[in-house]
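If your schedule permits, I should be very grateful for your opinion on a structural question. I have a record of one protein: its chain in single-letter code and its fold written as discrete structure tokens. Kindly check, if you would, that the fold set down in the tokens agrees with what the sequence suggests. I remain grateful for any guidance, and I place the record below:

***
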Amino acid sequence: MSEIALNVLLNVLSRPVHFPKVGQTGRLFIAEPPRPFVAPRLDIPGKDPSVFQKEIIFIEASAAVGKSTLARQVSATLKAPILDLAKVPVSTGSLHTLLTDLEAADKSDPVTAFHEGKIPVIIDALDEGRLLSNETGIERFLATTAELLLSNRSVTSRPKLVFLARFESIELARQRIELRAPGITRATAKVEFFDKEEAWQLIQAYAATAAKPGSQYQQHPEPARDLIATYFDAIENALGLAAGELWQNEQGRVFAGYAPVLAAVGSIFAEIDDFVTVANNLKSNGGREAWGVVEAVLYEILSREQAKLWKLLSAQCTSALPDEVYDAEEQMALLAQYIESKPLEGTGRVALPLADMGKYNDMVRTYLPHHPFIRRHEFGNAVLGSTIVARAVYHGRSISRDRLISLSRQWRQSAPTRRPSR
């Protein structure tokens, strides 16, 4: 595997020039450029960028690392249309229908342009699409999309579709398309966690965006940069790593280079009035102060996941949803049960009418494997896993001895002792 810059992908994709009426709204739309944006690097097999000269490019990543942000940036840069499966339900023949609805400036056929690779379509949020369109709708969409590609084999070395999703959903798409059309050319890239330089850039970008005019962040950039360095040192200490290991250690990079963490840290730093005092607190308290930031960020991620599921569920339910639906406590209980392969019963606090409860349970079973804390039926890293396990133990839920031993080995002498908050 080798890392490449985002521009390598952009240089392979065509820039549509004949479809000016595709705007910022509609089922296929051109995205506004995301602000702020720091380009992630992509992992590809081997070292040859020509790997992207295929009909389909699958871009896979862990949850919440910025796939939709990346999709919007590619769309805005190339003026290529996005199909957001979190908002547009799909099923049999949906892609063909959406293409035929496009209007070309020169009256050319948009389906023909698609087959020639002249109008690549970015398909985002496949994970959320499995909730909105259900598994049957998504599978029919993928099958008929494969059939559409098979109907014209005149061009097979230009990207026509770019899928962005988490690992499990990409694997689903790959399997369904291969089953229906094994001859379709395809490539896979992986969005990596940010490295040290990119992580610094993202914190600074979010801080600059959130900072008010005349703020301390704007007036005193040098102490702000010192605080960022001190923060990463504290995280390194909190993770139990030796000095200088944060960006070389896999667990360190997974957490320190995690986009939601970096975005939240940048936004927090924009509000600080006294960088020197905060930096001194981080230095004197070591990992303890850093864990305050970590804990706040983790709860922000849980809140974001609740909002996403809540929006989809509320559209399907007849009753009002109580606050407990997929809240932080519910998610952490479900995650512990999922990892331990136990029935997904949650906390037992969610009360819904029988029909709506069934829809909620079905949505949880579909959505939970794609949770930001999960990767291939395991915790994404020890930071997230320890948070969930500590919560489960605190509430008297059983966790396997093997898992406790595994996590304790990863965390031996790493994090300060703290009692989980109520």
